[in-house]
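sorry for the late reply, my laptop died twice this morning and i had to redo everyting from scratch. anyway the thing you sent over, i finally got around to it. pasting the sequence first so we're on the same page, its 227 residues, then the predicted structure underneath. double check i copied it right bc i was rushing
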Amino acid sequence: MRYRYDMQLHTLDTQLTHMGELCEAAIAKVTQALNDGSTEQAQVVIKEDEEIDQIEKDIERLCLKLLLQQQPVARDLRRISAALKMITDMERIGDQTSDIAEIIISSKWEKMDENLDKLTAMATGVSKMVRNSVTAYVEKDLELARTVMKDDDEIDDYFDEIRDQMIQLIRETDSRDGRKIFDLIMVTKYLERIGDHATNIAEWVEFSITGVHKDSSVMHQEGERNI
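ok and here's the structure:
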C-alpha cells in the first residue's frame, strides 16, 4: 500500500514538472513571437495552452484521489495541498502567455527595438522563476524557493522601467503610435504577472516544507503545534 502511495506522489512530481516545462515553453515561444512579430507562432502558443489546461485537470484529479483514498497527514498533506494551489498559478501563466499571443495577433505586432532587449530579459527572468519554483517543490529546496521570491523584485523593476519609458514616449510621439505603446505596456504587465504567479508557487513550496505560508492566516497545524 505504501509503495503504491509513494508511486502516486512520484507521479505528482512528474506531472508538475511537465506542467512547469509547458509553461516555460509557452513563455519561450511567445517571446520568439514578440521578437519576430510572428502571428503563426502566437497561434501555436494559444493552441498549446489547451495542453496546460488539460494537465491542470489531470493533476487536480490525482491530488483529490490522494486526499480521498490515502488520507495523508503532516508533510504529505501539505505537499498535496500546495500542489493544488500551484497548478492554479501555472494555469494562469498559460493564460497570460495566450493573452500576449492575442495581442501579437490582433495588433499585427511590430517589435519596438529600443525595448526589445529589456522585454526579452524580462521574459527570460520569469521563465527561470517558473522553472526554479517547480524544481524547488520537487526537490524540497527551501532556499531555491526563497530565491524565486527575491527574483521577483528584478521583474518588477523591469516593468516599472518599461512602463515609465512608454508613458514618456506617449507624451513625446505622434498619437498614432499610442496603440503600439499601449500594447507593449500590456505585454510587459502580463510578464510581470507571470513573475507574480511564479512567486506564488514558491510561497506554496515554502508552505509545503515549513507548514507556514507568507500569508500568516495559512498555517498547517497538528493540535497546537506547527508541523
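Residues 221-227 have pLDDT under 50 and may be disordered.
thats about all i looked at so far, will dig more tmrw
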